[in-house]
Amino acid sequence: MSNSAAQLAYLAPELVVAVGAVAVLALDILLPERSRRLLARATAAALLASLAAVWWLYAGEVAGRPERLFTGTLVRDGYSLFLDAVFLLAGILGALVSARYVDREGLQSGEYYALMLFAVLGMMLMAVSAELVTLFISYEILSLSVYVLSGIARGRAESAEAAMKYFLLGAFSSGFLIYGIALIYGATGTTALEAIGAAVMSRGLFGNSLLLIGMALVTVGFAFKVAAVPFHGWVPDVYQGAPLPVTAFMSAGVKAAAFGALARVLFTAFGSLSAVWQPALWLLALLTMVLGNTAAIAQTNIKRMLAYSSIAHAGYMLAGVAAYTAGDVALGSVLYYALVYTAMNIGAFAVVLVVGREGEGNQELSDYRGLAVRHPWVAAGMALFMVSLSGLPPTAGFLGKFYILNAALRANLIGLAVALVLASLISWYYYLRVVWLMYFIKPGEAPPTLSGAPSLRLAVGMAAVLVLILGLWPSAALNLAQVAALTVTAGGLPVIGRP
Amino acid sequence: MQWFLEIAWWIPLVPLLGAIANGLAGKRLGKTFVSTVGVGTVAAAFGLALGALAALLAVPGRQFQRDLFAWIPLGSPGAGGFGATFEAPVGYLVDPLAAVMILVVTGVGLLIHVYSVGYMGHDEGYSRYFAYLNLFTASMLLLVLANNFLLMFVGWEGVGLCSYLLIGFWYQKESAAAAGKKAFIVNRVGDFGFVIGMLLLFLAFGTLRFTEVNGLARPLVEQGMVTAGMITAITLLLFVGATGKSAQLPLWVWLPDAMEGPTPVSALIHAATMVTAGVYMIARTGALWALAPLSGAVVAITGALTALFAATIALTQYDLKRVLAYSTISQLGLMLLAAGVGAYTAAIFHLMTHAFFKGLLFLAAGSIMHALGNRIDLREMGQLRRRLPQTFLTFGVGWLAIAGVPPLAGFWSKDEILAEALALGTPYWWASGPVLWGIGTLASFLTAFYMSRAFYLAFFSDQRLDRHVEAHVHESPRSMTRPLWILAGLSILGGAPFGWQALGGGQTTLGAFLDPVWAVAAHGAPEAAHHAPVPNWVLMLFATGVAVVGILIARAGYRTRPFETPEPAQRTLGPFWAFFEDKWHIEAIYHAVFVRGGTALARFLAGPVDQGGVDRAVNGVAGAVGKVGTGLSRAQTGLVRSYAMSILAGAILVVAYFAFR
Lengths: 499, 661
Fold this sequence. Notes:
The structure holds two protein chains of two kinds. Chain A has a two-stranded antiparallel ribbon with strand order 1-2. Chain A is built from 20 helices and two strands. Chain A is mostly helical. Chain A has helices at residues 4-10, 12-30, 38-59, 78-104, 109-128, 132-150, 157-188, 193-203, 209-226, 234-241, 244-269, 274-297, 302-322, 328-355, 371-374, 376-390, 396-410, 414-440, 454-472, 475-489, and strands at 67-69, 74-76. A two-stranded antiparallel sheet of chain B has the order 1-2.
């Protein structure tokens, strides 16, 4: 692949988003004040166009055979295409839930949507990175965009505080990541993932402490981004302080991107060291599931509850990565879960937005009392998302969890599988408490009227339909996830312990 | 004819469509529409079920299975440790077992739907009620028609959800809302066992399809591919699921509270159908249980003890619906006792007759409530036979049927359970034939007694009605009394035609129909030693004697005497009465341990652990390792810093682990 124009064609989805981001910035300057609303549509259009490009590449059967681009720094394969689709879904839903909110809260709409597109671009580049430095730069594109997005409601102190916290802690963990990359380079002389894997095998670096420490630091860097315990401290504060649509978008998108990158690094570069990292991830997954779910029980603010819930879900996905020995089944389950989680979590946040009032009001659990009586459709949507998040059939969340369990059991991680079921058992309590409040408790004195922006309703509807489809007819999406996972694991995964 | 089997998937679908129609448009289109759709769809399902039964009789092998579409394909050649290709289709299985179940569910369900038209006629949530009830019927039919565990689990959760919605139907009532919550939480414990059991089953067998599981069980164990211990673990975990759904020890606590829901709901869900799902599930996977004698023994003894335990509580209750609820727990115990010893036909037979007479008793209790303005306390009844003659006669039939008086339906099925328990038993002394038979017989004696007590207190004894109530006592409308009479007919005639042959020890009609289901399962198994130590007619005579004695004792104490406290049974039992009345103190213990303990644990984890404890702990580690931030022993010195410390400590631990493993 020498012709760089032809190589660019493989990056069509990323390019469309990049162009879209710049175009949104330009439109922001060119358009008169009152037409700023068009920016949300332009954003959605750019994301849809990118999704079309993903589809085009799929149709061109790119998914099945990895294509190495730009001297091997990027790789276009089914894995990255699947993840791209997840990010774009998060972006589209994110843009839909933002539209009314950005107007109402008087945010800088040009910057807002441009940053959102840049964040999506960062995620997509992380997914195609086949090399650690490129991966790091993409990671920073994503991180900087979401730091600013968290603080974009400048009028509110909580928003600024969230951005500050996120930035400081994020910078701290980026340090771990880049230091880890440096150590890995020092040990192997390369930053390309496949070359690292080959070097470990050919030079027998199984006990090389430089390499092992590097691997540990890289794992820590990503563990921060996925919000694994004990790297989770920022999550409740940031999720609560950031503007709600931003929280919705990043809770799903950033998590998916970090998991996509973590899994690719571990599977491709460090497969032969799985005996080292598997138990560590096992423990992280366990801690994350248990702490996330138990702490969520005590929350009275729905944003904080969903923040702890997102920690818990990171635990489930970590269990999927820890199930390395199940090969493509493990990776496929993580990919599928990322998709499912995006739909159901943004859906839940969209309902929180529907119920919410100006200035982040109406976000206590008690505000959900009797919602079903006055707004049966909204309540039904929320009930569906809660049921799905808790992992009950016949929703997408059930199947997502089922596949992760399946992978864990195949990898012989029976203890972790049991812990996963127990943890979700705990989670049923707080998710279904919301359903309980909506359906079984009398509404408060002054029932809220809802902010019924059509775009918001569309987002709830889209997410609900996806949750149902992914629960009832999952085969199509599942096959795609499986094919995507196979492009990473196709060469066969090495399973070698320390000699 | 085959055509009815081809379209059997419409059986759950039709009530589901009814639920959707009533849920979305019921409020706008009015009561006539709601009743027509609600009752009509169940009637249609009943018709389809009859057709399916007729068609099944003509099918060789009497088994019809069809996959509608591949629901969850997870083909993964070569990957993973097992190389199993997993697929869970959306498909159904019609065999004699499923046929009996769908007939019971749609038949009894239809009567209860009709009854509800009258009973719920004045409720403002009329359309919501029928939407839930139809949804329940659809879920229950899905549960019994599913051809694999995963799809069954969808129905299993679906009926649970509907039960929860209907218990809390009058959510304005604090107690109803709390009862719904309790049912929900207790059932989650059971589901945990069910899910883990199902996953282990898949791990061991590579399939969740019932026909394959039943067919593969013995060969896999004989070839050493699956250990007997694994089968025991799977079956015990599945049994945990069954104890939740079927309200057995130790998870029985939710069912008595479930009586907060409307009475027809208690009749349909909490007596006739949903609670029997555990029994059905065990019967469905008979081949597994045949390989796990220990699990069978555990099931049998749990069932027997539950039967006795619940019966002792039932005799101290004043709330008529609670008497019936404990009685249901007790009767479910008998069914599980039968399932545990492998007498599946007897279990299903009793499931069927119980659906008739317990459905009848609940509906009759509902009729009393209807007449007395929702009063259900036995202390406020008495002499109702004159005022409610139809209810009196039909309740009387149900009473004699459950007490086990021949030739009513309950007599045949209960006798079959006790006879089979004695003949088959289990290999363990603590669940051997005589032990199980003895406990079962004692429970039956108590059943005859407490049902008679309730019957005499309600319809005879002295008149203790409230003066305001007395003026308005009236017999229920026809839409309610007609289902009562039909169920009364079934309670009289619904047993003998299927089981009379047991009189001479021969194979019964129902047995001839059902036994082939498990013949496949038992294929290659050593012939169960079916030695009847005592001729069956002797046992029947004895059982009849036990029932009659129970009734006569209650008659002496309650029929003509005016009611007074302490009542005769209370005087006789002395301190035991209080012990039974307090449910053997079990609920109090649960509350202390789980509710208070759990709340405290959650608070602890959410509070000190996350905000203080973890931070403090990691701060300690970080301080010690890195010599950084010596002043950080207190957590609240600055949140960002403490979060960063947490990250650092985590990183140090991960690095240390990777490097010095």
